[in-house]
Amino acid sequence: MDVSHILDELNENQREAVTASSKYVLVLAGAGSGKTRVLVHRIAWLVDVEQVASYGIMAVTFTNKAAAEMRSRIEALLGRPAGGMWVSTFHSLAHRMLRRYYEEAKLDKNFQIIDSDDQLRLVKRIMKSLELDPKQWPPRQAVWFINEQKDAGLRSQHIDDSNNYQTQILNKVYAEYEVICQRSAVVDFAELLLRSLELIRDNPSIQDHYQQRFKYILVDEFQDTNELQYAWLRLLTGKQTTLFAVGDDDQSIYGWRGAKIENIQDFSRDFPNSQLVKLQQNYRSTGNILKAANALIEQNQSRLGKELWTKDDDGELIKLFTAFNEVDEADFVISHIQKWVKNKGKYSDATILYRSNAQSRVFESNCIEQNIPYRVYGGLRFYERAEIKDALCYIRLTANPNDDSSLERVINHPPRGLGQKTVSVIREYARDNEISMWHACQQFIKGKVLNNRATGLLAHFIALIEAMAISREDRLQDHFANAIKRSGLKAHYTKKEGRDKGQGRSENLDELVNAASEFNYQPESEHRNFNELTAFLSTTALDAGNTNKTNDCVQMMSIHSAKGLEFPLVFITGLEQGLFPHQNSIAEGNLEEERRLCYVAITRACQQLCISYAEQRQLFGQTKPTIPSIFLNEIPSELIDDMRGHRQRWNVTPPGMKQKSRVDTNATVFAIGQLVTHNKFGEGVVINTEGSGKSARINVNFYQSGYKWLIIHYANLRAL
After folding, report:
1. Quick check: 161 and 189 in contact, CB under 8 A?
2. What's the confidence (pLDDT) of residue 471?
3. Sequential DSSP letters for 458-495
4. Dmax over Cα atoms in the chain, in whole Å?
5. 36 is catalytic
6. pLDDT > 60? residue 659
7. Residue in 132, 175, 169, 125 with CA at minimum distance from that of residue 150
């Protein structure tokens, strides 16, 4: 049989994977090594060469887009439709099973799927019926709890809540949620997979049917599977099933949402006598970019191990820019993109990557000033984000209390007991009397039109806005910081959306304070009644309305959003300790996942990679010095083009690396750049040492407490 159409365009390792005869195969596919090609050609090999019926093949991936692309490429390679073959996402395949066996799954024949918004609304109704205060028990927290338990394969009756009051309450909501969903014949996304797993597990005949049917199961992005997905796969993998998993442990960056890197690392243990094939030839990046990525990821201890290489040239060195501050960093990035475009490149060739979404603001402002088209990928522009709009509405009310639109947005946000009925009464009264809602509120308070509770709450809101009002002595950033603090928005979002999302919104609010501190107000060019606050608010309104529909635009995105993408020109910004790696990940001991995230960022670059950090950065409206990221020293110096000659100044050494600047006292050795912990101040990074013996001192930047000089003999520091 002629197999040239399947094998000719593959390299040696890809061919090994495609033609593997082992029952269990793990393909460790490095970034840009052609994993989708291997999956597609493996399926074509099974159908055309091994004469496997399409009916007996299941290919599982994570997104509808990836599934559609895979099916399209399979059919193009086979030259015919892939009839009978299941190529889809975990959720879609589980849904398909439940539709066929709805009775065995204890579902109504016409069961419906609810999305995340419907799920939240249902949980809100349940919590209201249970008389739970949404301020104390945010509905989103309950939704997370429910989905987290389902992803772990747990029903409400399986959860031990005897020793935890919070778990007792949330589990009570979960139990009621299950009852209502069953009665209403609806399932959420997490339920699809859990119900499908239970269907297969509890019905031997159904399990046997699928194990007999699907003799070949192929899994994409195996490193991203969670506990429930892995259990689902193992149930479907029968004694006669061939399991072909493709993934990359070095690109496992979703631990925070349940992905278990152990699934890929323990593959050989869970599936004995499995075959491991490593795809290490990269078709995307230049040699120097790959050398940098390899050197960085080698620092991780928990990995299966591989080394990317390319037949192409080494290409340009990696450009390192040491910025004075975040504004200088943005100036460098945007000016470099402009040079790229002048040299016949396109704006869409470039992407700006950052660890925190709040970092986008200064890049967006620079693009607007330079009239450069840009797009925030996978998110909203800075001034379009909900928390920024919320804060600006509070601030607009301090400048103009008659702004009805702003008042309506924040009068009960965060919730303060002023419900829609009260707001409607105020709105109608204002309209009937041709006054603003602010004046209507004041008249309601004086005339005691509402009941005592509503009147008191209204008076508190009016007093809150008045307390936020700017005085002549206030700096603009102080006014913003005061308004944000008094509004309670940070605490609201943290409690409502959990630590990760809440922290992101909190960082964005801090960045709004930074924007106020950097605002360049020129009163001589403005109307005499146009003060600094009004000028800022007008500027942000214009920025928010400044959109460009062209496809040729600079891409801005978080590194998590960049996975799976590639660009000729990549900027990795904010490589500072506490920012990238993020302080939360450092505190929780997740430095290896942060390093994998940096590895993903580096391997997005095809032709040119630029990395940058700022010597100082605005935080909470104040300029603070920074410590360069621990990742910078993990890139070999011979790969770096230091654009400012500052490399000797960021001598940051990770634990275990040799370092000249050391202090040794009482058998404890500390190196500059080393991570340490203190009983009182928590974790931090060593930035300087001086003296010797019992007089030796050490300067540590603690993530929570800032800079501290400590006498080592008495400090009881421990190296991490």
Report:
1. no
2. 62
3. HHHHHHHHHHH---TT--HHHHHHHHHHHHTHHHHHHH
4. 92
5. yes
6. no
7. 175
- Is residue 35 part of the annotated active site? The answer reads yes
pLDDT of residue 655: 35
pLDDT value of position 193: 94
What SS3 state is found at 279?
strand
From 37, 260, 278, 604, the catalytic residue: 604
Among 361-365, 485-489, 524-528, where is mean pLDDT lowest? 524-528
Contact between 515 and 361 (Cβ < 8 Å) = yes
Give the β-pairing of 622-625 and 275-279: unpaired
Q: Is 381 helix (H, G, I), strand (E, B) or coil?
A: coil
Is 121 part of the annotated catalytic residue set?
no
- What is the model's pLDDT at position 621? 65
Q: Give residue-wise pLDDT tens across range 29-82.
A: 999 999 999 999 999 999 999 999 999 999 999 888 888 899 999 999 988 888
Q: Which domains does the chain have, with CATH numbers?
A: 4-100+194-281 (3.40.50.300), 112-184 (1.10.10.160), 318-381+547-644 (3.40.50.300), 384-510 (1.10.486.10), 662-719 (2.40.10)
Q: In whole angstroms, what is the distance from residue 275 CA to residue 266 CA?
A: 13
- Token code pair at residue 593: 């996942």
Q: Is 212 a catalytic residue?
A: no
Choosing from 176, 188, 191, 220, the catalytic residue is 220
Does residue 277 register a pLDDT over 70?
A: yes
Exactly one of 149, 223, 229, 251 is catalytic; name it: 251
